[in-house]
């Protein structure tokens, strides 16, 4: 291991996840070409980028669903890249995943959906009645009462997202990943989801990693913002830091969205 690798292998109090030199191609298409990314413990980390920039691929790598061609992903100082499925299974309870379209099982009730991860992983420790109890408590914590017996198709999009979140937190993960949680929602529903992410981050003290291309949400809730562009992270820091002197693609992204007003570009100021 290199000197830099040694340092990264130390558990960092500030950063729960540290990614170095991550590369991944599909056929001849290189999607990630050396991603360096630090994600802050207990905070809301936004990873932004255009459609097709490789955000979902990055997320799949972070949770160990796919493997990179090169690079390291340190989670609490441990590189998860070399781990096989068996070893990854030991870490997976650390991760909770909230999918873009909630990804609930249509044939199961709300309650059964939320019980599902516990039935899969805690069958030996908990009875079905206890599992139901935990599921109900999570639903209640998210303000979902009285819909336990409903099916996903009977809920609004926003409610389905909440149920998806209840299912993601039922195993009490340390890190919660959200892939485009506000895509396809109107501005009010978007704000509700943002508040839900903030509420969960505070209540559960989790590290949140939110993949998004919604600039308004990004700068509303992000403690740390990183932009993925052409296979690399081109800006990273607090919203204030990244907006102070954004690289051109970030500037364009932010200005096109109209969500945040930027000061004039530095070249213009100098002229
Ligand atoms: N399993 C795969 N096989 C082949 N190509 C893939 C695969 N997964 C992703 N890609 C390609 O990688 C690129 C990045 O995809 P990705 O889904 O990560 O984009 P994204 O940033 O999440 O976009 P969006 O904002 O639209 O969700 C795309 O060109 C996609 O076609
Ligand atoms: Mg995606």
Q: Main sheet: which strands, in order across?
A: 6-7-8-3-9-10
What's the domain count? 1
Give me the secondary-structure category.
Answer: alpha/beta
* Beta-strand segment tally: 10
Rg is 19 Å
List keywords for this structure.
271 residues, Rossmann fold, six-stranded mixed sheet, four-stranded antiparallel sheet, 10 strands, globular, binds adenosine-5'-triphosphate
Describe the structure.
The chain has helices spanning 3-9, 55-62, 85-91, 110-121, 128-141, 157-169, 187-204, 215-221, 239-244, 248-257, 266-270; strands spanning 15-26, 29-40, 44-48, 70-75, 78-79, 95-98, 175-179, 207-212, 224-229, 232-237. It is of the alpha/beta class and 271 residues long. It has one domain: P-loop containing nucleotide triphosphate hydrolases (Rossmann fold, 3-Layer(aba) Sandwich). A six-stranded mixed sheet has the order 6-7-8-3-9-10, sandwiched between helices. It has a four-stranded antiparallel sheet with strand order 2-1-4-5, with helices on one face. Helix 4 (110-121) packs across helix 5, helix 4 (110-121) packs parallel to helix 6 (157-169) and helix 5 crosses helix 6 (157-169). The mean pLDDT is 90. Bound molecules: adenosine-5'-triphosphate and magnesium ion. Residues 55-56, 179-180 line the site of magnesium ion (MG).
Summarize the structure.
With 271 residues, the chain is of the alpha/beta class.
Give the helices and strands, then pairings.
Blueprint lengths: L2 H7 L5 E12 L2 E12 L3 E5 L6 H8 L7 E6 L2 E2 L5 H7 L3 E4 L11 H12 L6 H14 L15 H13 L5 E5 L7 H18 L2 E6 L2 H7 L2 E6 L2 E6 L1 H6 L3 H10 L8 H5 L1
Parallel strand pairs: 3-8, 3-9, 6-7, 7-8
Antiparallel strand pairs: 1-2, 1-4, 4-5, 9-10
Helix pairs in contact: 4-5, 4-6, 5-6
The chain binds adenosine-5'-triphosphate and magnesium ion (MG).
